[in-house]
Amino acid sequence: MARKADAFQWQRRDLLGLEELSAEEIVHILDVAQGFKEVSTRSIKKAPALRGKVVGLLFFEPSTRTSMSFSLAAQRLSADVLEFHAESSSLLKGETLVDTARNIEAMGVDIFVLRHKAAGAPQLLARSVESCVVNAGDGAHEHPTQALLDIFTIREAKGRIEGLKVAIVGDIGHSRVARSNLWGLIKLGAEVTLVGPPTQVPSAFARMGVRLSHDLDKVLPEMDVVNLLRIQMERQGKNSFPSIREYSRLFGMNGERLKRCKKDLLVMHPGPINRGVELSSEVADGPQSAVLRQVTNGVAVRMAVMYLVAGAKGR
Amino acid sequence: MGAILIRGGRVIDPANGVDGIMDVLIEDGHISRVGEALKLPKGGELVEAEGRLVVPGLIDMHVHLREPGSEQEETILSGSRAAVAGGFTTICAMPNTDPCTDNEGAVAFIVNQGKAAGQANVLPVGSITVGRKGEQMAEFGQMIRAGAVAFSDDGDTVRNSGVMRLCMSYGLMFDKPFISHADDKDLSGAGVMHAGSVSARLGLAGIPSTAEEIIVSRDIMLARMTGSKIHIAHTSTAGAVELIRQGKRNGVRVSAEVTPHHLALTDEAVATFDPSFKMAPPLRTADDVAALKEGLRDGSIDCIASDHAPHEQEEKELEFALAPFGVIGLESTLPIVIRELILADVLSWPELVAKMTINPARILDIDRGTLSTGAIGDVTVIDPELSWTIDASEFASKSRNCPFNGQTVRGRAVMTMVGGDIKYRLI
Predict the structure, then answer these.
(1) CA angle, B305 as apex, B365 and B53 as ends, to 5°?
(2) What is the arithmetic mean of pLDDT over B66-86?
(3) Which residue among A100, A238, A297, B351 is least enclosed by CB atoms within 10 Å?
(4) How far is CA B414 from the centre of its chain?
(5) Per-residue pLDDT reduced to its tens digit, A94-128
(6) CA distance A255 to chain B (A)
(7) What is the ipTM score, two decimals?
(8) What residues of chain B have any CB closer than 8 angstroms to a CB in chain A?
(9) Closest chain A residue to B322 measured between Cα atoms?
(10) Which residues of B are catalytic?
């Protein structure tokens, strides 16, 4: 583990979002994750840090990769994992989030990992239970571990965050990934540009210390990193853009666009990719794509987060 | 009914231009004299009011009493007890009950329950359309016969402008106010808080100010077209204040109210995701708060109303987006408006009292809100200096969803008299 990591005393029992974290805290998570990444390369991929602890995954929204990543991360730390998915839950019988969580907590859970469609649900949970709470995505609010793994991947590729120019492209208004990324990146000194049509990049974001642009081609040449968000096909009915075809032409990343970028541009996507929409296959599978490294790093980052919150003193 | 002499208080009766240290004598349920050194009739009761304010009974023209339909949240009895504890002698019950107050029988039920409760005067507001569905005009004439004082589909806007026009036009022959809940639902959509930089930060769907302003504008224009009275409920945006100001300047019969929470709080409060700060219209920005206060000062906004909206605690312990809209206010309104308007030097005491007494009485065209000789004996005594901490668990209301819970405030009603009977007293 890096030396910096040893000097810092982590205090938080919950990870609800990156907005409330300091730059020092974010760097500390990344440093701890760096150490855990090494565990994943061993032939026996296990560390004893959370042995005897129980991690409860509460997923009230469909998710495969995030829940698998958390589950694997918990198991690599030797924790027991309890999985709860809303479709198999008593929510259908009208039980509230707080009641569900308190019942599961009564079985003996140390860390809750919550995915929920309502913004602020992790805050509600943290107010209502004794266990640690890790936000695995709440509505359009925050998805802190996704942003941490994105930033980890950028740091790994570029050796720094400060001074980098990062474009986040897509439906910023509805994106928890964008919000967490912009908080984390700004705090670490990156210059963030949000790109998309005005319906997806509301002017209110200008007050958060970022640049807004509706012209991808104009901003691309100066970028060090471009992070393309998944277009929610199901949101199309709300018509924030007229068609996939037009969106892809204006905001999709393809080989043609790549030619006009810096040679070492890092291309990211939180997945799952709509091939041919946000990314052409040529870009997604090309040498500048960090997509699979992001997924690999996600496990290490989530190990770090659960390790840290479990070790913090009482709330 | 015996005589009661309220002695030595600062009597403020804006309708009669009265503001001075005086005595108020109430006999046979009516104000019999206001003057200096009045004598207590034999066998009468004395209330010492030195250092306190003696004002006409406060009127809150926007209250949800939840009966019939949601008696676990509030009843006409518990709500009217909360009213007198907060200094209100008259409250208007909004019609979004279950079933809805859209007919003579439903209006009569509320009147009767109010009388049986025997606390504050409970005046029903009937719905504008049958079932508050925005389609078919309700029976205004029948409802007025049973005691309805105004009409509103509060909770919803009458979406169809043609229907609204028809109702205002037909209603002219009764000349009761229509109360507009201004929200263009096609624009506010699934919004749960004010649309602005805070909603952008929190990722919560926003309700733009424009959604309120479009309907305020529409209803003022329809009032001008038809000649009807229109009252704008819970005004919350700077743009709405300006539209009302312009409407008054143009001679439209428009009046407006503002709630204590829209004067005291902004959308920043939502950052905790605590549903105690979720209401419709939503908490707006500091600029809107300043405009609302200016609107009160220059008379664009006529009155204060609590929009008391009780909800069960379980419902307020939900995710912000899933929790219902609305906060209670009957027992916290007075100290909050004292803080925001008197202590902040926005209004004088006589101006504030007018906005809580004679102004709503005039809007509703009811014979209350003054201490004139012969007027009904509705009187509130306020201790403007009394410091206390708001504890919703001690409220007479059945609900606890108060955004000011835990705050230490100044000023409180210490005696509330309705029709010559003392219904609440701390002195």
Answers:
(1) 85
(2) 98
(3) A238
(4) 19
(5) 788 999 999 999 999 999 999 999 999 999 999 99
(6) 33
(7) 0.85
(8) 195-197, 199-205, 272-273, 314, 317-322
(9) A118
(10) 307
